[in-house]
Amino acid sequence: MAEVNTGGGGGKHQKKRAKKLSTRIDMTPMVDLGFLLLTFFMLTTTFSQPKVIELTPPIKSDDKTKVQDTLSLTVVLGKNDTVYYYNGSLKLTHDSNNIMQTNFSNDGLRKLILNRNQYVLNSIKAIKEQHDANKMPDSTYARLVDKAEGNKYARFVIIKTDTTTRYINVIMTLDEMNICNVGKYSLIDVNDDDMKMISDYKQTHKSTK
Amino acid sequence: MPKVKLPRNSPSIDMTPMVDLAFLLVTFFMLTTKFRPEEPVKVVIPSSVSTTKIPDNTVTLSIDSAGRVFFDMDGKDVRPQILQAVMTKYKQTNLTAQDMSRFAVMGTFGVPVTQVKAYIEADDAQRKTMSTASAGIPMDTLRHNDQLSDWVSAAVSYGLADYNTKRVTNQNVKPPKFSIKADGRAKYKIIKQVIDICQKQGVQHFNLITSLKSMPKS
């Protein structure tokens, strides 16, 4: 009959020599698997969450913001990455000589906007110098930059899009606003006067070529 | 000269720390990885210097290069509700409970309401064919077939209701936001149309999804 040795108790003390097994086990397969998983997750993980540009478009019914003519710059996004721009309002510049063409290169739109936004950029530069010299906490810096961008002498950029404009050009333009610290801009549809000016511009430039 | 006998070192080294580190990393990557469901629509998003992160709890409207509109929304609890609302409006009331729960985890879709049931019940390969053949969610205001507007409207009202009920118990919940994930080659006219439709449903703020590029110098 099977007997269960409960151990202890009055039995004769038996010296049992337990067979000493090695405590080391072969970990190689586990490590292999570990590294395989590690490689897999490292290659498939993307940390970068997509970024966004926030946009609050005007609601048509209450779009009555007036912009001072001398401070406004209108950018018209045309077909095939072309950009037309003019200063001030249409009445002042109803003349195709006042409309200009540029492009999305660094020497094009960016140079233009940086130029026009000198006033704000200079004040931001002063703020940044103070910030760099550790005289200002980050929150104050952000607030002052915001304030400088919203200054009443800051340029107002009006971005006009027509039916042929591609989305990427809109994003590029909004991006330029970000890069060039333009705090005041709006995104609206092109009107007939703008279209007429652009076609006039194209006509004159065709004939001179 | 007697030969110098170099002591023979054991070739086995202690790998424990390395293994520990490897498993730590595995655990980290396993926990942080979130598998992205395959998108039925291919969108090449433009890049910008903006560093604002995409908000939580967002309704994403994807627009591909051909101008087709696709709809997606976070929130497993809300999705069946908006599906019910829109389908009832278009008298497509043959949805089963299983359809509802499948829709809750489905991801982006872009088919007209008449095909939604079939799309929910399809497998991945069939969904892909359906998406390719589809013209996106109809948003034709002239022919009274503006289904996008109904999806957006349902998403706004049910999203807000869900937010309001959850807010009482959970402080971390966020109100629904709208994001637009458009292909750079798409016509801005279409994006404008989508924005107009959302504005009519009371959406004011939009997040245009872009990929990050570095800030140019000077």
Structure, explained:
The complex is a heterodimer of chains A (209) and B (218). Chain A is of the alpha/beta class. Among the domains of chain A are: 69-117 and 155-205; 118-153, no CATH class. Chain A is 41% helix and 15% strand. Chain A has helices at residues 28-44, 106-116, 118-132, 138-149, 167-179, 192-208; strands at 51-55, 72-77, 83-87, 100-102, 156-161, 184-189. In chain A, strand 2 and strand 3 form a beta hairpin. Chain A is elongated and about 110 Å long. The model of chain A is unreliable at 7-11 (pLDDT under 50). With 218 residues, chain B is an alpha/beta fold. Chain B is 41% helix and 15% strand. Chain B has helices spanning 16-32, 78-89, 97-104, 113-121, 124-133, 147-167, 188-200, and strands at residues 47-48, 52-53, 58-63, 69-73, 139-140, 145-146, 177-182, 206-212. In chain B, strands 1-8-7-3-4 form a five-stranded mixed β-sheet, with helices on one face. In chain B, strands 5-6 form a two-stranded antiparallel ribbon. In chain B, helix 2 runs antiparallel to helix 6 (147-167) and helix 6 (147-167) crosses helix 7. Chain B starts with 15 loop residues before the first helix and ends in a 6-residue tail after the last strand. Chain A binds chain B through residues 27, 30-31, 34-35, 37-38, 41-42, 44-45, 47-57, 59, 77, 106, 110, 161, 163-172, 174-175, 178-179, 189, and chain B through 15, 19, 22-23, 25-26, 29-30, 32-33, 35, 45-46, 48-55, 63, 179, 181-189, 191-192, 195, 199, 204-212, 215-216.
Strand-helix topology:
The complex is a heterodimer of chains A (209) and B (218).
Chain A: H1 28-44, E1 51-55, E2 72-77, E3 83-87, E4 100-102, H2 106-116, H3 118-132, H4 138-149, E5 156-161, H5 167-179, E6 184-189, H6 192-208
Parallel strand pairs in A: 2-5, 5-6
Antiparallel strand pairs in A: 2-3, 3-4
Chain B: H1 16-32, E1 47-48, E2 52-53, E3 58-63, E4 69-73, H2 78-89, H3 97-104, H4 113-121, H5 124-133, E5 139-140, E6 145-146, H6 147-167, E7 177-182, H7 188-200, E8 206-212
Parallel strand pairs in B: 1-8, 3-7, 7-8
Antiparallel strand pairs in B: 3-4, 5-6
